[in-house]
Specification:
By secondary structure, this protein is α/β, with parallel strands linked by helices. Helices cover about 60% and strands about 5% of the residues. It contains 17 helices and five strands. The longest helix has about 35 residues. The radius of gyration is 23 Å and the shape is globular.
């Protein structure tokens, strides 16, 4: 049976850096929790990776003599069995061109130098948990499929095996959501109870909306539960936004806004990567992918990233769009005070048929008091 916490203590991490001081710093941070292996240059790292030693995560310096981090990453991705090992680049250069080159070479994430201990520990822990969840799901599927094949002639036992499989898949599904949410919380200084509030807003909207005949079939209990669990992943793409923009204490300029507008694409791609690790598209990640990618689209087509309009926007994302805006309006930000609930309601109703789906807006109007209750119950301290 799979333990839901997916503990990763004792995982093997390969640190590749030509700077002894950097290696000593990382060793001091990580060796109490993980088994570390060290390579002082790219060639040494590739020799280790070409051998049988199991490696669960690679911390890879970008600027090194002979082979730089990009080339090392490209070569290790061609090594059998190393295609899916998470690679976290360590770099002092986080400009968009460098990040694009890193992702193209096969990087999973970036950590800025000089290394921040809390950030490094959070990123390492989250990527190891995500990899463990993916590996566990693959192993669980193999085990359960073998059992089902073995018992095809015994119908009652087959039913029992399928029931057990569903329970295990639910646990792994929840573990994957937990890993993703941990990654979001490690990067965004404005999550907190925002994730809880928007999660509950979305469920309230969905339950109200399914009273409409055209949506009843799309919003059964299973769909609503999956949307509820997926909602906290709406801003998972912010893991790819530089700290200088994400943590800026004030409004963004035009260039910074354009960069911030990339987070839906980054979020969708992160979830697609998880599906590739798992070996196939999975229904329970569909809503998460839709919400992450499309929650900034508008009913009138003036949103981003694609400028979708009307019902071309996935229903889960239309629900998330309204929930996210309501919570932003009533929440304090470094650049604005919170608005009263009544003012936020008026602003959202004024955008009916423009920013928001008219029927979703009507559902909000019917549940405005419930929204206020959720906001109070999960208010930020």
């Amino acid at each position: 049976m799979l333990h839901a916490s997916l503990a990763t203590d004792g995982a093997r991490i390969l640190v590749v850096d030509d700077a002894p001081d950097a290696i000593r710093l990382i060793d001091g941070l990580l060796s109490p929790h993980y088994r570390l292996h060290v390579a002082c240059n790219g060639e040494s790292a590739l020799r280790i990776l070409a051998g049988p030693l199991p490696i669960d995560l690679i911390l890879l310096d970008v600027v090194m003599p002979d082979l730089d981090g990009y080339e090392v990453c490209r070569r290790l991705r061609a090594l059998p069995g190393r295609e899916d090992v998470p690679v976290v680049f360590l770099t002092g250069n986080r400009d968009p061109a460098s990040e694009t080159a890193g992702f193209a070479a096969g990087a999973t994430d970036f950590v800025s130098k000089p290394v921040s201990a809390p950030v490094l520990l959070a990123r390492v822990r989250t990527h190891l948990r995500l990899r463990a969840a993916a590996s566990a799901l693959l192993e669980q599927n193999r085990t359960l499929e073998a059992r089902v094949t073995e018992r095809t002639r015994e119908l009652s036992q087959l039913a029992a095996e399928l029931a057990e499989r569903n329970v295990e898949l639910d646990r792994v599904r929840d573990a994957i959501f937990l890993a993703f949410c941990s990654l979001a919380e490690a990067r965004d200084n404005e999550t907190g109870n925002h994730l809880l509030r928007t999660q509950h807003y979305v469920r309230v909207l969905a339950l109200q909306l399914r009273r409409q005949p055209q949506y009843a079939g799309q919003l059964d209990d299973t769909a609503i539960e999956l949307i509820f669990k997926s909602a906290p992943l709406h801003d998972i793409g912010k893991v790819g936004i530089p700290d200088a923009i994400l943590l800026k204490p004030g409004p963004l300029n035009a260039v910074e806004t354009a960069r911030m507008h990339e987070h839906p694409v980054i979020g969708r791609d992160a979830i697609l990567m998880a599906e590739r690790l798992l070996g196939a598209p999975l229904p329970f990640l569909r809503h998460a992918r839709e919400i992450a990618y499309s929650h900034h689209e508008r009913w009138d087509g003036l949103g981003y990233p694609e400028g979708l309009a009307g019902e071309a926007i996935p229903l889960s994302a239309r629900l998330m769009a309204l929930a996210d805006v309501y919570d932003a309006l009533i929440s304090r930000r470094v650049y604005k005070p919170p608005l009263p609930h009544a003012t936020a309601v008026d602003l959202i109703l004024a955008d009916r048929g423009r920013r928001f789906d008219p029927l979703v807006t009507d559902a909000f109007a019917a549940e405005a008091a419930t929204f206020a209750g959720i906001a109070g119950r999960y208010r930020d301290e």
